[in-house]
Each structure stands twice: as structure tokens, then as C-alpha cells.
Amino acid sequence: MKDCIFCKIIAGEMPCYKIYEDDFVLAFLDISNDGNGHTLVVPKKHCTNILDCEEDVLSKVFSAVKKISLHYVKNCGATGVNVLNANGKDAEQSVFHLHIHIVPRFENDGLKVFPSLKQNSNSLQEIQAKLKIN
After folding, report:
1. Number of CB atoms found within 10 A of residue 5's CB
2. CA atoms within 13 A on the CB side of 111
3. Whole-angstrom Cα distance, residue 121 to residue 93?
4. Can you give the residue ranges of every domain in the chain?
5. Which tens digit of pLDDT belongs to each residue from 32-62?
6. What CATH topology corresponds to 5-131?
7. pTM exceeds 0.90
8. Could you tell me the CA-to-CA distances from 45 to 81, 95, 108, 116, 122 in Å, in that order?
9. How do residues 70-109 score in pLDDT, each as one tens digit?
10. Catalytic pick among 38, 97, 99, 101
11. Catalytic site residue 38?
């Protein structure tokens, strides 16, 4: 896609701080620099998010996410990782090219990454009845 910033990075039209690359995936540091090693993993084939991504592409993306996450823990001193993803505008997706965030975590790093959600007023039974896949 010609107007997609991640497609431009993949094509080499824009610079990035590359962490990992194979034939299907590119991983690079998030320019926000808001966490020590905050990484974005993107498929080289454009898709908007997991909702329209082909299964084989999604599989390759998550395989790379695991590989990079293990590297951060085994070789880079991280004690864990947060893996985050947003799908759609109302889910706070900001770049409409599938991307998975990996945030390496370190003891006492002071980051609060996991969302804090408000208590839902609907019962779990009501929610289950609406969401259950039959």
C-alpha cells in the first residue's frame, strides 16, 4: 500500500532500527522509544489487522513474535515480555497495517503496560450468552 508507513519501511523507503527480518516478517524498534526495546513485528504482506490477515501470514508473524520474545528473555536480560495488539480504530489501532508490539520487561522497570479496565455492569452469564461461539 503506497500510503502505509509500515509498507514504506518494509520497502526500504523509510529507515528503521531493524531487530529481525526473514522472508515474511520485519521487526523493528518503535520510534516512540517508550520502553527499553519496544518492538513492532509486521508482516511484509500488507493486511490491516488480524481480522483480515491470511492464516499462513498470521502464523508466520506469531512465530516471529515468539522467536524475538525468547531472544529478549534468554539473551538480552529481559525477565518477561508484554505482547500487545490492537485491531480497529475503536480498539486504538493507530497504524492500519497489522503489527504486534513486544515490550521487553525488566525487574523494577516501572512500566504499567497492561490495560486497566473498568468493571462491567453486565453479568458474566449475559456476556457469555452474547459472545459464545456455537
Report:
1. 14
2. 18
3. 25
4. 5-131
5. 999 899 999 999 999 999 999 999 999 999 9
6. HIT family, subunit A (3.30.428)
7. yes
8. 25, 15, 37, 33, 39
9. 999 999 999 999 999 999 999 999 999 999 999 999 999 9
10. 99
11. no
